[in-house]
Amino acid sequence: MRLLGAFISLAWTVAAYLSYKVISSFLGARQNASKARQLNYEEPPELKSRYPFGIDLLLRYIAADGAKLFPVDSIQRPIDAGGFTYKYSILGNRVIVSADPKNIQALLATQFNDFDLGPTRRANFYPLLGDGIFTQDGKAWEHSRAMMRPQFAREQVSDPELEERHGKWIVSDDMGASRSLIPIVNSTEHDGGFECFDGL
Question: Which residue among 85, 115, 145 closes a domain?
Answer without folding.
Answer: 115
